[in-house]
Amino acid sequence: MPGEISIRHLEKVYDDGFRALSDINLEIQRGEIFALLGPNGAGKTTLISIVCGLVNASGGEVMVAGHDIIRDYRGARESIGLVPQELSTDAFESVWGAVSFSRGLFGKSPDPAHIEKVLRELSLWDKRNNRLMSLSGGMKRRVMIAKALSHEPRVLFLDEPTAGVDVELRRDMWAMVRGLRESGVTIILTTHYIEEAEEMADRIGVIRNGEIILVEDKAQLMAKLGSKELRLHLQHPLDAIPDALNGEPVSLEADGYDLIYTFDAQREQAGVARLLRLLGEKGIEFRDLQTRESSLEEIFVGLVNRPSAGVDAATTASPSGVNER
Ligand SMILES: Nc1ncnc2c1ncn2[C@@H]1O[C@H](COP(=O)(O)OP(=O)(O)OP(=O)(O)O)[C@@H](O)[C@H]1O
């Protein structure tokens, strides 16, 4: 079954000959929160702009809520709410006026009850008569979201929704996005805050140099590509790794007092038990131990910095989760 958003063989070559997207294939299901991660210039905004009908594709096909974005532009566009990166608001307009006007742009009849609901959810109700220029940056960003939701879209794009906003607003926005998902809205967000993707996303796509290099359930991604670290604080420092541990993924830190064992998050049991047995046999005692899992940030940095061959190896390691659905 095609997803709420279905992208097939999408290509973008800008007029100056720059290839910004190459053979993008992606299915996003109804009610998902999908985070698109990638370094600066990877092609995130280009991809979103094509799906939203703001930039023309050079090839391929995109369907949104069953509408082809070219053959049925209007149907596709009406299904989408877009919160762009740049704040652009009409300074002299009131909050209520700006949000109501946005709804009208999509040819929807006025619905004051819906506008009120959106403004209340975004804590903008008390400011509804304020001019936009009198609002703080965070409030203006809420207005951008209210505008994007004014015509009751099925799909919401958030292009770096929390760039430059304070922690409190960021958390409010996360709660709001979850609430929207519960009402059946499909959400695609780009973000530079890995914490945001870790906190919010059901699935994560990583884009690099205009290519999707990985699409994976967040939990599976963290389990599959993440590593764990076991740090043993030794009773007596070691000068060097003992011969018995040669070939094991271990290193020494803290002047030989800490023995670090890094292992695949999926194979932990057998490896740790073997390490502890070897240490016991060699009479190496420890007084404390800690374990730590790699964060999504470490996984992401590892992925985007990996040479292409390495990326392929990572994605083909488990074909079941990659670029499917
Ligand atoms: N109009 C344009 N003409 C030529 N090249 C462009 C144009 N717009 C974007 N690009 C190039 O396409 C590439 C992808 O840009 P895009 O804005 O999609 O990246 P991004 O992943 O959104 O980056 P960021 O995280 O910095 O917002 C960049 O190299 C950019 O310079």
TrEMBL record:
Q: Which SMART domains match?
A: AAA
The record, for PANTHER family, names: ABC TRANSPORTER ATP-BINDING PROTEIN (PTHR42711)
Q: Does the keyword Cell cycle apply?
A: no
Q: Which PROSITE patterns does this entry report, sorted A to Z?
A: ABC_TRANSPORTER_1 (PS00211), ABC_TRANSPORTER_2 (PS50893)
The UniProt keyword set, sorted, is:
ATP-binding, Nucleotide-binding, Transport
Q: Name the Pfam families for this protein.
A: ABC_tran (PF00005)
Question: Which is an annotated GO molecular function term of this record?
Answer: ATP hydrolysis activity
SUPFAM superfamilies under this entry?
A: P-loop containing nucleoside triphosphate hydrolases
Species: Chromatocurvus halotolerans
Name of the protein described by the UniProt record: ABC-2 type transport system ATP-binding protein
Domain ABC transporter, residue spans: 5-234
